[in-house]
Write a structure and sequence with these properties.
27% helix, single chain, 12 helices, binds zinc ion, alpha+beta, 26% strand
Length: 513
């Protein structure tokens, strides 16, 4: 998935030089990355960022969120959003103040019941100063009341909130939370969620996880919808789809609830959307055999409205798909891609955004594996065809998937060369080791974070091979890698186009920019 905002925000921020953050499994957000750790225990401001080398001011230091309770009221007619978000967190240092990432108008902030001062800094920083000092290890209950019109709240001319004819979509990567809930907005700080939204009766609200209860009637001809995520989620993977939806529920082979939703605006694209998304449980069942147990409590998908997003996003437990994927009939490859992300990206998240290959390379390679499964072309055939499809002098080969740069996080190369890199790994270590590495990775970093270096180390441990040259060549070196003599012979023979190529190409053209 992706969006168009990275270049705009990259222009507004200054990249810090080379602070390598080693991935920390679990939810711990380390305080003060990228700055000296004070020796004295005097309360200090929480860092305005988590040291991400591409987006240094994304997320915040000094605390670790465990849960967000996001309680909203939305008016589709005006796009007005009012809300109260309650954040449960633990201080990871003595704090004189701390930041949240947020854009809407803040009415009040309370910290453990005490009214707290708040002000704005930079593009999206909300600076909160509690009247009492906060000590390391202290439990924090942060209550933020706010309102705004998210579609008109712009940063660098951009909003991550999509208003539609019948409602709205809060679906974007990497920036999404800013427009609807205050957060520690970086994948290093994952949390569970309760999300509830009051809308006029007749409007549906879809979000992550399960519905702990049916929608409740509220005064004024309104309904309040509630959704719950019981497994930790990165903030960009929480979502809202508000509008006219047909909701279809079922039970998956593993006993989990399947909740799919189809926009009523899809018209003649509706059947193709259903023929694709209704295969989610089958695809999750297949993927579980390759990647390990499905990590979450529910499955599903949302076919977004005709005037919504132009991409798809692996929102946790329930990807959201733009209408473009159904233009020429069903496309299961995008469903495979977004559901593979449930393991690669959602359960195991990037430690830094430059680790994006761990998301997009793996989700793209899952499509090649699905093509093999469906008898529509082997991964080797897809590799050969992709290698030949990009001439040696193509700019495609100049992007390094292992460190593409902040404005190329969702470049073609991260997806296609990223999948090619995994195929080269598979050839090098053999099928037995390769299909041992994938579930080992999702098990070791489940609900946490990972780095490319950690993945390489795991692959080396399981295979017993030194893979440094392979990773350096395929992920970190500009230029088209040379193939071995045998592989070169195949590629030179003008490989035939695999049957799956058209659908995979269509999906990727919408996923990449
Ligand atoms: Zn993706």
């Amino acid at each position: 998935m992706r969006r168009v905002f990275t270049a705009a925000i990259a222009a507004l921020t200054v990249t810090t030089a080379g602070t390598l953050v080693t991935g920390t499994p679990g939810q711990a957000a380390l305080p003060g990355w990228g700055r000296p750790v004070p020796v004295a225990a005097a309360p200090a401001p929480g860092s305005p960022g988590l040291g991400d080398s591409y987006f240094p001011d994304y997320g915040n230091g000094g605390y670790d969120v465990s849960h967000y309770d996001v309680r909203l009221r939305y008016e589709p007619a005006t796009d007005r959003l009012t809300g109260t978000t309650t954040i449960l967190a633990t201080a990871t240092q003595d704090l004189s103040r701390f930041n949240l990432d947020f854009l809407l108008d803040v009415e009040s902030v309370r910290v453990n019941g005490w009214s707290a001062a708040h002000t704005r800094e930079g593009t999206h920083e909300l600076v909160v100063t509690a009247p009492r000092a906060i000590v390391k290890g202290q439990l924090l209950t942060i209550v933020v009341r706010y309102s705004g019109v998210p579609s008109e709240t712009l940063v660098g001319g951009y909003t991550g909130w999509t208003r539609t004819d019948d409602g709205a979509l809060a679906v974007n990567e990497p920036e999404s939370a800013w427009w609807w809930f205050p957060a520690n907005d970086h994948p290093l700080d994952k949390a569970t969620f309760d999300i509830s939204v009051s809308v006029p009766t007749g409007v549906e609200v879809i979000s992550n996880g399960v519905q702990p209860r049916p929608p409740l009637a509220e005064p004024g001809n309104r309904m309040r919808w509630g959704w719950r995520s019981t497994k930790p989620a990165a903030t960009y993977l929480a979502f809202l789809s508000i509008g006219q939806y047909d909701i279809v529920t079922d039970t998956a082979p593993n006993g989990q609830p399947v909740i799919n939703a189809y926009s009523a605006t899809l018209g003649e694209r509706g059947p193709a959307a259903r023929a694709s998304i209704e295969r989610t449980a089958e695809i999750v069942d297949w993927a579980s055999g390759l990647f390990g147990p499905y990590p979450f409590e529910a499955q599903g998908g949302v076919a977004g409205p005709i005037d919504g997003i132009g991409f798809a996003l692996e929102t946790q437990t329930r990807p959201v798909y733009g209408p473009g994927f159904w233009r020429r009939g069903a496309n299961t490859y995008v469903v495979v891609h977004e559901n593979a992300h449930q393991w690669f990206g959602d359960s195991v998240s990037v430690a830094q955004w430059r680790d994006i290959w761990l998301n997009e390379g793996f989700a793209s390679y899952a499509e090649w594996l699905w093509s093999e499964e469906q008898g529509e072309g082997t991964a080797q055939e897809l590799f050969d065809f992709t290698y030949a499809a990009y001439p040696e002098d193509s700019g495609f080969w100049q992007v390094r998937p292992g460190d593409p740069g902040a404005d190329r996080v969702f470049d073609d190369a991260v997806y296609d060369r990223g999948a090619m890199a995994l195929h080269q790994l598979r050839l090098a270590v053999g099928d037995e080791a390769f299909f041992e590495i994938l579930p080992a990775w999702t098990a070791e970093h489940r609900y946490g974070n990972g780095t490319v270096a950690q993945f390489q180390a795991l692959a080396e441990r399981i295979s017993g091979l030194d893979l440094d040259e392979l990773f350096t060549t395929w992920l970190f070196t500009a230029g088209r890698p040379e193939l071995t003599t045998a592989a070169r012979a195949t590629a030179a023979a003008a490989p035939a186009q695999p049957k799956s190529w058209t659908k995979i190409r269509e999906a990727h053209q919408l996923l990449q920019r």
